[in-house]
Amino acid sequence: MNNETPTDLAALLTESVAARSSLLEQLHCEETTCYRLLHGAVEGCPGLTVDRYGPLLWVQTFHEPLPPGALEALSQAADQALGQSLIPIWNHRAQARHPASGYADPPEADGWHLAHEAGLAYEIQPRRWGKDPWLFLDFRATRRWVRAHSKDLSVLNLFAYTCGVGLAALAGGAREVWNVDFSASVLDVGLRNLDHNALDTQRFDTIQADVIPTVRQLGGLPVKGRGSRRRPYARFDARQFDLVVLDPPTWATSPFGAIDPVRDYGSLLKPSLLATKPGGVVVATNHVSTVEVEGWVDSLERTARKIGRPIQSLELLPPDGDFPSSDGRHPLKVAVLRA
Is pTM beyond 0.85 here? Predict the structure, then answer.
């Protein structure tokens, strides 16, 4: 943000909601109540996003905190534009550098709330101090695709987080879904979402494990890395799935190697392809904004050729229109690979 006043921010929000009117109508028909209302980087206010998560109005700042009165002005503008009253909350992502002046969420924001996407219920809890929401909205188009293409398939969801993709696959009729993530707490959110939707628990597994040794074993590759000899890890036999979703973070390290989508995406794609049945699909993502889609796609194709699984078809999935781009180059890149 620069020197925008609360009135300026409210006007920007009103304008951005109006620009989304047809999309919001479509999303409401899909029984979706979580979407981005203002994407500040493109819509006039870098460092600010405004999202709806069911009953919550989720305002996030990434550099400078909100000026006094801005949250109230944004809340009033959103309520008027949407025709309903939402609970305003503010997550300042740069908390350590710019404290949010003792701000506290309103009492009615306490606890968890339910938001819906395509009729599925997702548990949402206000999170502050720079923490991510439990459902990433720019991934909606990918969850929609997975749900539409999962019937009777076995699905492996890597870096599952709160299992949003896994839940969509199960709702789409997948016969088996594995959700792999190192964090037990986010997998627990996924299990609660499973209960909220009364879906079949027998076809849905959550696996708390380091993704790197897990996918390498599933792909029939040896586990290596500085911790492979002295740190225990979950053991798996090699096996292949019909559909693999590979959604790594922008950067992470583990005793079994670095997760580096900029310089070494192939180290993740290779075992993921080997854990995919011939003719199956890998949905691969890259969240790093500085990675150009052409170079990334080229690296996917080179990795696939090198291991003898050349890509037969490749489709790019852009985010929905509530995540606009000034040049068509979204930070989130999603490729559907058939190999």
Answer: yes
